Write a sequence for this structure.
């Protein structure tokens, strides 16, 4: 593995809800992701997977330990990240195209050039729409698009500013199985050409095994990383591959680890 | 039988005309004296006969209301943004606002008269003060209920607080603002008339007070009709404006996910 691009080093995080003790979400969580690597985080629900993403993006600060991105300690929003959530979080008053352009209005150096180079940026967004199969829907508003289409647009928005780091929080969780599998292929293709570093949080073990180079398994709350798997299937991976013996075996192993983690939490 | 859409549209008008007919008939049947309850036909006659004299009063009231309303909407929007965009300001200011709002506005007019004399200025300020509250509350609610995920998308990109406010918060609170306008314009109208009845030498409110002290009851009712008409017209104007808001504001329920 190359030198890590993203790392969590013995991170604790407590959510404070008003008075009292708060909820300990992460306890001594450590993980490392190399540059250009596709990492997936799986684990029982409520184990702090999304919290990891918020820490990496700089939306949250750890109570203990260190979060590093690109050899620098994260102390605020990292600005080099693109994010997509389970909820497409499109701004309803903008068209799909304008929604996708939002990061370019915020992130430098695009921000100061935006007025002059708008046409060029729109061209770039249209090209991206085509790659995710949304061509022709640029001028629709989010409420005129289906859930899958909104999620595709949300992916475009995460990618438009060509971020070095892509943080995906169950982006396909609310979609039907076929749309989800379509988007796996789309995401894989995009990542193979652009090679961003990706951290994907998911409940879907098949999704993790299909997409990731490395899978981290987390324990129940308070979350920490209890296992890491390297996934060596050749790319581009196909849906047929997901029915191969090795793939099923990996899924099985992940499933058992998570079951154990849940059982431990209950006991 | 299900009425056709034409009948449906005509129904409210039929009800209004019907009300006048019943009113007229009852007054004539029971010989109600004019100084208790004048006949609608008398009131309309007064309106027609004194139109030239009434018009400047109506214009004065309308102008005062609109100026107060515009001031109230601008101030209300700014205060609403200040309150809604910061939890701290929200918590600090809210009790004061509620307390302020629960003061009967008539009680404020004498103070305004001491400060500004009688006439147009206290009337404008009363209507401003009375219509500010729904605007503040709606704008603040629109901002405060912005989905945190929507903000996170921008925050993760390193957007500043003002980026988020202009990019997400303010556009998101626009439908709330528009919904508050039709309430605010009606209240502004109330504020104007209250102030005019207490301390003014022009305006429908003032005219009605003078007419009532002369026991010119048909003229009082003529004033009431003018107020009702202007109130309905202004409400309708802003209700229409709200309807013309872009589709996203009206289609919350159609959101996927």
């Amino acid at each position: 593995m190359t030198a890590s691009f993203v790392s969590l080093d013995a991170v604790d995080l407590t959510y404070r809800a008003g008075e009292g003790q708060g909820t300990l979400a992460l306890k001594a969580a450590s993980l490392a992701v190399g540059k250009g690597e596709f990492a997936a985080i799986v684990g029982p629900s409520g184990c702090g997977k999304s919290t990891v993403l918020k820490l990496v993006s700089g939306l949250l600060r750890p109570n203990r330990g260190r979060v590093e991105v690109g050899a620098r300690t994260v102390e605020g929003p990292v600005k080099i990240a693109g994010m997509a959530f389970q909820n497409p979080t499109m701004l309803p008053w903008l068209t799909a195209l304008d929604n996708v352009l939002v990061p370019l209005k915020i992130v430098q150096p695009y921000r100061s050039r935006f007025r002059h180079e708008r046409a060029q940026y729109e061209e770039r967004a249209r090209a991206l729409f085509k790659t995710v199969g949304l061509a022709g829907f640029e001028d629709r508003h989010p409420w005129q698009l289906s859930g899958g289409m909104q999620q595709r647009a949300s992916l475009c928005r995460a990618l438009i500013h060509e971020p070095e780091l892509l943080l995906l929080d169950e982006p396909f969780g609310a979609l039907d199985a076929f749309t989800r599998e379509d988007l796996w292929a789309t995401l894989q293709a995009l990542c193979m050409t652009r090679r961003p570093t990706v951290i994907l949080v998911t409940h879907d073990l098949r999704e993790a095994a299909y997409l990731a180079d490395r899978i981290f398994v987390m324990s129940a709350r308070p979350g920490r990383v209890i296992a890491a798997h390297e996934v060596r299937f050749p790319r581009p991976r196909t849906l047929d591959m997901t029915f191969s013996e090795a793939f099923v075996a990996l899924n099985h192993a992940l499933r058992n680890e998570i079951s154990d983690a849940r059982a431990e939490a209950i006991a | 039988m299900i009425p056709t859409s034409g009948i449906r549209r005509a129904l409210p008008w039929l009800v209004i005309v019907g009300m006048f007919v019943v009113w007229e008939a009852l007054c004539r049947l029971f010989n109600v004296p004019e100084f208790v309850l004048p006949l609608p036909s008398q009131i309309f006659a007064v309106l027609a006969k004194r139109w030239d004299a009434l018009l400047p009063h109506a214009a004065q009231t309308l102008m005062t209301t609109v100026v107060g309303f515009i001031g109230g909407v601008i101030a209300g929007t700014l205060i609403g943004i200040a309150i809604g965009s910061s939890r701290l300001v929200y918590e600090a200011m809210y009790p004061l606002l509620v307390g302020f709002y629960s003061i009967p506005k008539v009680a404020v007019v004498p103070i305004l008269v001491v400060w500004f004399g009688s006439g147009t200025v206290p009337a404008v300020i009363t209507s401003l003060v009375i219509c500010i509250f729904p605007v503040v509350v709606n704008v603040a609610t629109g901002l405060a209920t912005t989905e945190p995920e929507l903000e996170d998308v921008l925050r993760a990109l390193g957007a500043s607080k003002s980026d988020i406010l202009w990019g997400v918060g303010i556009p998101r609170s626009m439908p709330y603002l528009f919904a508050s306008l039709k309430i605010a314009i009606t209240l502004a109208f109330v504020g104007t008339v209250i102030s005019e009845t207490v301390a003014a030498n022009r305006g429908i409110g003032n005219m009605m007070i003078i007419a009532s002290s002369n026991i010119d009851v048909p003229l009082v009712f003529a004033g009431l009709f003018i107020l009702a008409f202007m109130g309905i017209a202004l409400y309708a104007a802003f209700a229409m404006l709200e309807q013309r808001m872009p589709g996203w504001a009206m289609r919350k329920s159609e959101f996927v996910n």
In short: Chain B has one domain: 53-245. The CA atoms of residues 75 and 132 of chain B lie 7 Å apart. The two ends of chain B are 40 Å apart (CA to CA).
